[in-house]
Amino acid sequence: EVQLVESGGALVQPGGSLRLSCAASGYSFSNYNMNWVRQAPGKGLEWISFVSSSSSTVYYADSVKGRFTVSRDNAKNSLYLQMDSLRDDDTAVYYCARAVTPDFWGQGTLVTVSS
Amino acid sequence: EIVMTQSPATLSVSPGERATLSCRASQSVSNNLAWYQQKPGQGPRLLIYGASTRATGIPARFSGSGSGTEFTLTISSLQSEDFAVYYCQQYNNWPPLTFGGGTKVEIK
Hints:
A: mainly beta; 4-stranded antiparallel beta sheet; 0% helix; globular; B: 11 strands
């Protein structure tokens, strides 16, 4: 069974940093591209980052470019999102999702940016 | 950036009735369009990809159609478990991947 489990969400002050993790199981993680998608409270889905299976290609939404860094460790079946210079409008549930047309999603982890 | 627009924002439907949801792209996305269902407190679930292909395990009452800029998701006979929010997503021209704003299907 494919499972994606996010962790690392927390309450953080504006300007702070946080690192999210996504643990994948039930499939060959190294064969799949991965994405991070977020959802602000009561709002829709916003794609924020992509990393290819080999980490050779990464993309970011303009809203997070220069502040967030995506990475993966295929040996550990894990995806990461380093978030720096956090702002109030980064408050959201963050999902990891498999593939460009995400066929599996995690349950999400909540990041709250507030003073 | 391709903008995806969904309508209506809310759809009130009685169980057993048909629901028709629309999604429009600001420019052609060919058939590179997916639909997702999201229930409260859960991650989205892939329903349809390639505009009309059901994902694994998705019941036949869900169908997708359209190409270019106009797309439709039809739920032929709404079941209680189908009341949720539905999103469309284009993956033809990216980054960025873009989602519509969602349609909430509620019980009438």
